[in-house]
Structures are given as C-alpha cells and as structure tokens.
From TrEMBL:
InterPro entries: Cof, HAD-like_sf, HAD-SF_hydro_IIB, HAD_sf. This is HAD family phosphatase. It comes from Lactobacillus intestinalis. It comes from the Bacteria. GO terms for cellular component: cytosol. Gene3D superfamilies: 3.30.1240.10, HAD superfamily/HAD-like (3.40.50.1000).
C-alpha cells in the first residue's frame, strides 16, 4: 500500500550532527509533501522547537501537524492542540521522589515553558531550553500550585557525569509500570504519562486523517522512537546511526543522519 504519512524524528534523524537539515533531505521531503504525503515531525521537543524545521520544509498551517513532547501532545502547526496527555500535582511529587535517587536536575515541560525547582541548572537543561526557544522558570516548591499540570519531565546532568546512568539503574519497577520512561541521551532521561508515546500519537494522528497504519512510514534513531518501531503495521526505517533496539525492529536500515539517510530511503520506497 502507498505511503501517505511520514513521521520523522528530529535529533539524530532529520537533523545532521551539525543540527541542520541537509539540502538533499530537505528537497526530498518537500517532493513528498508536494505529492500529498503528510510529513510529520515527531520529537521530544515542544512545538516551538519543531516549527523552525517545519518552516524550512515549507510546512505550515492548520492542515499540517507535529507530534511533540515524545507523543504527549499532537498539534497542528497553527498551534491547535488535537490531543494532550498531562500529568498532575501528584505526579509532580512523584518526580521529586525519583530525583532524590541521584544528583540530577529535574524540569517539567508545558506548552508554555520549562519549570524547575533547581537553582543550579545543568548545561543539558539549558541546551534543551535554548534549542526549543523556551524560558526556564525557576520556582520554590511552595510556589507550585496544586492544579499544576505538565506534559513531559526531563532528568538531566552535565556531560561526563554518571548520575543519569545511576538514576536509570535506580528507578523502581513501579515507576516503569506507571510512566513511559526513556533513556534518550547519556545526559537525559525523559518521562511521560503512561501511554503517551510517539508510536501512540502517530497512530492517533493517522486515525484522525483516516489513514491506515500500513500507510505510515516512520524514521528514528533513539530510545524515544522505540514505540514507533514496536508497531507491526508501520513501515519502519532505522537510521544508520540508530541504537540496536531500533535497528532490530526496523524493516530497513538506511544511511546515517549525516549522509542523507531519510532521502535515500524515501527514494527507494516512496518516491
């Protein structure tokens, strides 16, 4: 069956190691879009961190879409929220308990900004905020209202520290049963409400667009893409730089993100 939607991870997949879209990949995705194929960026970033790359691809408006916050939110590119899975004040307190398992920073992501109780910010947290054009609001615990909600959590540490690995190995089983948790970088662990994943969000969007799942192609490279690669109906393409868990579940392994892997796969299977 013909591919009608392409879901593309951002970092390590669409973007080169220089944090840009290669000219060949840009041209190829624009050709796909011109043929009526929906090109959907699927990222752990909020919409503000995705829009500049959508604009580079010529995508905008209320009939183009993005999967953000690792699948906790689906929005059109005009900003309208189509689907949102949130965590609440009880989850906020749970995150503070998990933070005590290691010396890591903790921040809470919403569609407005990042919130944190940490006054000594890790470089990784500051990078995450800068890449997504987001403000970091530092507050004391008593300033957080009881009706506080958020879409995603990030635990971060500075490069060279072993504390994220320590936290990952210390997270209790009940937490993995209660939340979707991914070890996305050496310096970062990301956490969402249970069921909030890129794979589920892409399925939700396909259903809204009246597409069958076997009309969807996905591209990814890291742990937060794994849910897309666990769907047996999607056409799954792993980047050459992907982790082994992604490659093991892929239908095809293309070239890496620095050598036009997306463009090569689309020319082989879609265009």
């Amino acid at each position: 069956m013909a591919i009608k939607m392409i879901a593309v991870d951002l970092d390590g997949t669409l973007l080169t190691s220089g944090n840009n879209i290669s000219p060949e990949t840009q041209r190829t995705l624009q050709v796909a879009s011109s043929q009526g194929i929906k090109v959907v960026l699927a990222s752990g970033r909020p919409l503000s961190g995705v829009l500049p790359f959508d604009e580079q691809l010529g995508l905008s408006g209320d009939d183009q879409y993005a999967v953000v916050f690792n699948g906790a939110v689906v929005q059109n590119l005009a900003g309208k929220v189509l689907m949102s899975q949130e965590m609440d004040y009880r989850d906020f307190n749970t995150m503070l308990r998990l933070q005590r398992l290691a010396h890591v920073n903790l921040h809470f992501e919403t569609t407005e900004c990042f919130w944190t109780l940490d006054h000594d910010l890790s470089v990784q947290m500051q990078i995450n905020a800068a890449f997504t054009d987001n403000e970091i609001r530092v507050r004391n615990r008593e300033e957080i209202p009881k009706n506080f909600t958020f879409n995603k959590v990030g635990f971060t540490c500075n490069r060279g520290s072993d504390q994220i690995e320590k936290l990952w190995n210390s997270i209790p089983d009940w937490a993995f049963q209660s939340y979707d948790i991914v070890h996305s970088l050496d310096t970062c662990i990301e956490l969402n409400a249970i069921g909030a994943s890129k794979g589920n969000a892409v399925m939700d969007l396909a259903e809204r667009l009246k597409l069958s799942q076997n009309e969807v192609m996905v591209f990814g490279d890291q742990g937060n893409d794994l849910s897309m690669f666990e769907n047996s109906e999607f056409k799954k393409v792993a980047m050459g730089n992907a982790i082994s868990d992604i490659k093991d579940r892929a239908d095809y392994i293309t070239d890496d993100n620095d050598h036009n892997g997306i463009a090569k796969a689309l020319k082989k299977f879609v265009l």
